[in-house]
Amino acid sequence: DNLASDLRASTMTEVSMGKRIMPGRPPDKGSFPIDHFSECAHLKAEYLRCLAANNHDNMSCRYLSKQYLVCRMDKNLMREEPMSALGFTDADNEHRAARKKNRDKTKEQKGWVVGVDGIQPDRESNWRRPTLINVARLFG
């Protein structure tokens, strides 16, 4: 019985100098060796150029990030996984046009000028000084 408990304990942890050491665990998903020999650096550089050319819209350059991950898997720099598990689809095989950003114009783009458009001269006449006593009610 004592031998069985020692075997269970040794499979879960190792003992070193009287202290238990927890067993190592594999790295988290997404952490993988650095490409020290720049085997896939040309794809990374092409991806960065694509981002700059497409106003940093990553959807238009997804095909390059897919090629980069395939290169890393082929060079054994990361574990082989299906592309669908990494968030890619079959439509991510070619370049897409950059998405248009439908933003409303800012007030400056519409012609608003600081110091000119902010002044409202009629506001001063409508302003009343706060008082504790309502004078109009006392005498009116």
TrEMBL record:
Q: Name one GO biological process term.
A: mitochondrial respiratory chain complex IV assembly
Where in this protein does the record put region Disordered? 88-108
GO CC annotation, single: mitochondrial intermembrane space
Keywords, A to Z, come to: Cytoplasm, Disulfide bond
Highest taxon listed in the record's lineage:
Eukaryota
Q: Where in the cell is it found?
A: Cytoplasm
Question: So what family is this one in?
Answer: Belongs to the COX19 family.
Q: What is this protein called?
A: CHCH domain-containing protein
List the lineage, top down: Eukaryota, Sar, Stramenopiles, Ochrophyta, Chrysophyceae
